[in-house]
TrEMBL record:
Domain CBS residues, every copy: 7-63, 81-139
Gene3D superfamilies, sorted: 3.30.70.260, CBS-domain
Protein name according to UniProt: CBS domain-containing protein
InterPro entries: ACT-like_dom_sf, ACT_dom, CBS_dom, CBS_dom_sf, Diverse_CBS-Domain
Keyword set includes Chaperone: no
Family annotation (SMART domains): CBS (SM00116)
CDD domains, alphabetized: CBS_pair_AcuB_like (cd04584)
Keyword Membrane set for record: no
Lineage: Bacteria, Bacillati, Actinomycetota, Actinomycetes, Propionibacteriales
Location of the ACT domain: 142-213
Pfam family name, one: CBS
Keywords (A to Z) from UniProt: CBS domain
Length: 214
């Protein structure tokens, strides 16, 4: 899956000369926590609610509320934003975006193609993709299976499901240790008892069964 398949296109933006109160107003109006900062068509930074909070006067300040509000009103995005912006290509793999977000401890990446902003990808987008890939909300039966980690086991598993005329809608594999793997399989059938019996007869173990048929 690619970033362009999960990103939010045409995101809301601000320019470096926008005031902090105006940037906050954009965030609140559109329900976002981060905004790409664009100057002459290029992404020059990112501003977040956390950036603004860090730049705001402390509650322990001796300034009056009026003085604090005045100081904030004079602050511009350019003084507060994170720079340079960490960006990603729309043709990058989704797992690459997840790695950049995780390693950089950031929550949003501007998506840039040919020097222009085309979207943003966020932690929430990654989580939504994870849920979709695993088919957690899809109608059908979702089996979590422990299988020997050896050649041909996945082929055996898919062969068993095919023999019962069941279509695999989703499949994910996690290597738990050197001897076994955990396989999550989403099937389009409401009745998997015979499939489960054949899988266990083949040396696999059903760890969990989720029924999304209702």
């Amino acid at each position: 899956m690619f970033v362009k398949q999960r990103m939010t296109a045409n995101p809301f933006t601000v320019t470096p000369d926008v005031s902090i109160p105006d940037a906050l107003a954009v965030m609140e109006e559109h329900g976002v926590r981060h905004l790409p900062v664009v100057d002459a068509g290029a992404v020059v930074g990112v501003i977040s609610r956390n950036d603004i909070a860090a730049a705001s006067p402390s509650k322990a300040t001796t300034l009056s509320a009026q003085e604090a509000t005045y100081l904030i009103s004079k602050l511009r995005v350019a003084k507060v934003m994170s720079r340079p912006a960490v960006v990603i290509s729309p043709d990058a793999l989704l797992e690459e975006a997840a790695t950049v977000l995780r390693d950089g401890k950031i929550e949003m990446l501007p998506v840039v193609a040919d020097g222009a902003l085309v979207g943003v990808i966020t932690e929430s987008d990654i989580l939504d993709a994870f849920i979709d890939i695993l088919g957690f909300r899809d109608v059908g039966i979702r089996l979590t299976i422990e299988a020997p980690d050896e050649p041909g086991m996945l082929s055996l598993m898919t062969g068993i499901t095919a023999a019962h005329q069941a279509n695999i809608q989703h499949l994910a594999v996690h290597r738990g240790n050197l001897d076994t793997s955990v396989v999550v399989v989403g099937l389009n059938t409401p009745n998997t008892q015979a499939i489960e019996a054949d899988l266990e007869a083949a040396g696999m173990r059903i760890l969990a069964r989720r029924d999304n048929s209702a």
